[in-house]
């Protein structure tokens, strides 16, 4: 970030709109592995004032933001404008959050990259450069594995064995900031689930969420078929889930 290129490591979140990083001076911040962003040392950083069209608050000096996540994590601070170097491409006048009160399971990274569909997301702010298109490849859990994030419609960087498949997204005015797909069906071990709820309502694609949430009829059908096919012994649930299993392999 910035003309002086302070390196930041962030979580990629398709369900969030605002990109933010911890910054100094910080009031309440979690332990971060790398250096914290320092606006005072960046010649290209500017704060967003309250009379800016980006801000709707009444603070006479700076524009504040507050973001609360579903797991209880949160961040709040001031909006700022900075130059963003992204894969060799310089993005000017990028609006982001300077987090001065942050708490949550962020894994010691600098902050979070918002890839949602709102006006403040990275995708929207870089629309003129990348066309509002991005793709990402998640890494495996093996040591040394790495994924990738590609801004723009260049798909040749992915070494796919099979052709890339596409599916249409569903419009939803009440959830316009999210990416929504049509859940048409599920199967367990090749057995198709029979349940009402498929093909209606849609399902969110959220890279920042670790738990899949399903309509109750679909969840019950999934659980029943899963229990029918799985032979692992039960274990004590510590996360208030319905079932855990003992296994040395998956």
From TrEMBL:
Q: What is the similarity comment for this entry?
A: Belongs to the peptidase A1 family.
- Give the range the annotation lists for the signal sequence: none
Coiled-coil-forming residues are none
The entry's active site is 13, 206
Query: What is the protein name given in its UniProt record?
Result: Aspartic proteinase nepenthesin-1
Instruction: Please give the Gene Ontology molecular function terms for this protein.
Output: aspartic-type endopeptidase activity
InterPro entries given for it? Aspartic_peptidase_A1 (IPR001461), Aspartic_peptidase_AS (IPR001969), PEPTIDASE_A1 (IPR033121), Peptidase_aspartic_dom_sf (IPR021109), TAXi_C (IPR032799), TAXi_N (IPR032861)
**PROSITE patterns, alphabetized:** ASP_PROTEASE, PEPTIDASE_A1
Superkingdom is: Eukaryota
* Regions that span the bilayer: none
Q: Could you provide one GO biological process annotation from this protein's UniProt record?
A: proteolysis
Q: Where is the Peptidase A1 domain?
A: 1-250
């Amino acid at each position: 970030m910035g003309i002086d290129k302070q390196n930041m490591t962030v979580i990629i979140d398709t369900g969030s709109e605002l990109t933010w990083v911890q910054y100094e001076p910080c009031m309440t911040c979690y332990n971060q592995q790398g250096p914290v962003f320092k606006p005072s040392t960046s010649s290209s950083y500017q704060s967003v004032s309250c009379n800016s069209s980006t801000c709707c608050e009444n603070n006479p000096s700076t524009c504040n933001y507050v973001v609360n996540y579903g797991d209880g994590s949160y961040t709040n601070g001031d909006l700022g404008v900075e130059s963003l170097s992204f894969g060799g491409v310089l993005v000017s006048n990028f609006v982001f959050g300077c987090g001065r009160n942050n708490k949550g399971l962020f894994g010691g990274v600098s902050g979070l990259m918002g890839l949602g569909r709102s006006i403040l997301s990275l995708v929207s702010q870089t629309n003129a450069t990348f066309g509002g298109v991005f793709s990402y490849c998640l890494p495996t859990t093996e040591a040394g594995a790495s994924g990738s994030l590609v801004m723009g419609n260049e798909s040749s960087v992915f070494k796919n064995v099979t052709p890339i498949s596409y599916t249409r997204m569903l419009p939803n005015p009440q959830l316009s900031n999210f990416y929504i797909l049509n859940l048409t069906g599920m199967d367990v071990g090749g057995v198709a689930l029979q349940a009402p709820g498929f093909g209606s309502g849609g399902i969110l694609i959220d890279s920042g969420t670790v738990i899949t949430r399903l309509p109750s009829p679909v969840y019950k059908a999934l659980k029943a078929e899963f229990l029918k096919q799985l032979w692992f012994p039960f274990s004590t649930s510590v996360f208030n889930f319905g079932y855990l299993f003992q296994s040395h392999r998956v």
